[in-house]
């Protein structure tokens, strides 16, 4: 194994970047790198928002504009300090991002991209027509940034500020992605099979996390705009229009939209290529059109076709042949355990489901189903395909709203509540269609389950003040993985596991939330015989520890051996309920299954 570690490589790279302007390099390159740093700041926001969260924004240039104009106005018209200009720009951006986010992030699909396009256009024409902001000529004569007696007047000096900001932002985003809120953010991307169902079922507000990503991206853009304004010493509307809004997105996609390194790679490639193309294309084609836009369009199509993750992941795969291997972060098993909830006494009423109903249009998928679970029970829910078992699960866990009926969990009425609140009340679940974050490790996927037992938010994560709690969450995740026999795979990517083990990871994630009631939807599907036996053993052990289970399962043998009681459904209706022996002996059940097979 190499003695050089990754953090050492990162430290050397950082030092080289910050020392660069002290080297005898031509001013031209300093200027180029200043632009690349400024663009990277904006694109980092897009990495978080679009690459990680799956939320597309064309409006980042407008937020940069807010940062630039705020300081432009405060310093030139009002004669205040640029640092006040920064504070004002960030405050205005925060309010605008909260308002725009609150209005659009709850809506699905294309509303956000459309809204950000409108926002970018609106701001462009607004500042272009405001007398007080100098219309399309903008504001001139901004002061240079100073810190005490030190002036960042020259390109070489403001370089330090720009790159310090960019590197700190990269560090903060990297830390955020590897944290309690970060795990939720990474689970949201609908383009990568994510969404809000699973994070909500783990107790997280997905709206809140989207809003936080949107605000962070906007603030990063505003900082970039502030630095840009004081580098140029002037502001005008053109760098903040929709053309740049699109270009930032292009940089992100080209560089690698899901990766922090991609933000820098994309910013650098586009800036350098644009300069070259602006020189060479008019020579080749004559005239002076914006030919580079055409080339970028073609390149974008090629990247999306052949390297949809962007160029950075491609490059880093090649680079990592020379770099030391990334060491899997160890788990501190001596970390104190997370707090555990008060569980009900064995035999106490746990769940009461009373005549719940779900209609999908004309189809009544769940037709007035009632049953009860007492603490310590393992109850099976069986029935032919399409009987309404998964829908019943979704009603009980709050993933779907009820058409009618009542659900009581631990003495509290929970019908009408969302899955987030039901999770908080002590219910956890797995999904028939596995919902893991494939590009996250098995351990991180399970750690996501500790969301409700931990506290650290975005700011703490970015400052790495969450270390102690993260150690606890990771230790808990490993403990749960060991419980289901997957500790060996803790550091593998969840997407690399076979379907059977993925189901087990979902169980570990649900257990990590320390539930009083666990709902398992077809946990044994896709498992091999040995794995099924091991799973049955785990479930028996959970029962012995006093956990209560509601289980949907197709494997009759598995259900019969494991459960205390079974509820049988057919066509959404309650067919019968009894002990495994009674269910097995029932002619009605046999007929239902035979009917389904015929
Ligand atoms: P099971 O899990 O017992 O196989 P489900 O609960 O998944 O059955 O489905 C019960 C019935 O409800 C099926 O006929 C299914 O097609 C229908 N169904 C389930 N989800 C939806 C939905 N979101 N919209 C419309 N119909 C649905
Ligand atoms: Mg089902």
From TrEMBL:
Bilayer topology: Multi-pass membrane protein
Keywords: ATP-binding, Cell membrane, Membrane, Nucleotide-binding, Transmembrane, Transmembrane helix, Transport
The keyword Methyltransferase is assigned to this record: no
Subcellular location: Cell membrane
Main location: membrane
The keyword Transmembrane helix is assigned to this record: yes
PROSITE patterns (UniProt xref): ABC_TRANSPORTER_2
SUPFAM superfamilies: P-loop containing nucleoside triphosphate hydrolases
Domain ABC transporter: 351-596
SMART domains linked: AAA
GO molecular function, one term: ATP binding
Transmembrane segments: 34-55, 62-80, 86-104, 111-127, 158-177, 211-229, 249-272, 279-304
Pfam families: ABC_tran (PF00005), BCA_ABC_TP_C (PF12399), BPD_transp_2 (PF02653)
InterPro entries noted in UniProt: AAA+_ATPase, ABC_AA/LPS_Transport, ABC_transp_permease, ABC_transporter-like_ATP-bd, BCA_ABC_TP_C, LivM-like, P-loop_NTPase
Protein name in UniProt: Branched-chain amino acid ABC transporter ATP-binding protein/permease
